[in-house]
Amino acid sequence: MTDINLFEPQHFKVRVERKVAVVTLDRPERKNPLTFESYAELRDWFRALAGTDDINAVMFGSNGGNFCSGGDVHDIIGPLLDKDMKGLLQFTRMTGDLVRAIIGCGKPVVAAVDGVCVGAGAIIAMACDIRFATPAAKTAFLFTRVGLAGCDMGACAILPRIIGQGRAAELLYTGRTMSAEEGERWGFYNRIVAAQDLDPEAAAFAAALAEGPNFAHMMTKTMLAQEWSMSIDQAIEAEAQAQALCMKTQDFQRAFDAFVAKRKPVFEGN
Questions:
Q1: Based on the number of CB atoms within 10 Å of its own CB, is 263 exposed (0-12), middle (13-18) or buried (19 or more)?
Q2: Helix (H) or strand (E) segment spanning residue 170
Q3: What's the DSSP call for residue 241?
Q4: Is 267 within the bounds of a domain?
Q5: Is residue 270 part of a domain?
Q6: What is the reported pTM?
Q7: Are residues 170 and 222 in the same domain?
Q8: Does residue 99 share a domain with residue 20?
Q9: Which of 23, 31, 61, 124 could form a disulfide with 112 if both were Cys (CB 3.0 to 4.6 A apart)?
């Protein structure tokens, strides 16, 4: 398997604690905007993550009181005005590939959102499995405010699944800010925590997932992504096959042995 610790990103920060990779963007003075380089490097890193046993979960955190301010106005939006259609499509496909990489990485991803979380930053949070926020979190899919459609990086497919069609339509048409309280009430955020508790609680949640049956977690993540395009009959059959595979893992045996011995199981991911 690939050793993800050998991947030293140049355009974002990552550290590994208790088999949890803590990822943050690294431009806090600008509220952590994305560049062409950070988009591509994040995509490549999440793709590589699917091939390693060294990391079992990811926490995508905030930095300097903000999560991400979206695409950098000067480093991305300006240069896009000079690209031809082929170049523009290459860019939009690359950004969509980041979402695919997060969804397809095979590991639970927990977002810890503070402050600004807009544009592509809101999309990254949307692509994560679990989202924690502080009361100061301000989330906006603001593409329409720069003259673009709300259908960016899978937003029209994924956001309605999380918060509902009507609420998603409102946010994507208007580009308005969703407050942390709204986000929790609508199901975008799993919980709101105080700013000083955001990183510890999100990291603890990710670490608990990392200690779980990681082959089974991968299967859960896969089925969550795939079953939206299935009929109920297809989904039930797919889950039957997925669960049968999980029953052949050593973790399933470990859970049984621990239950018989009246102790907590220690999972190893195989």
A1: exposed
A2: helix 165-174
A3: H
A4: no
A5: no
A6: 0.94
A7: no
A8: yes
A9: 61
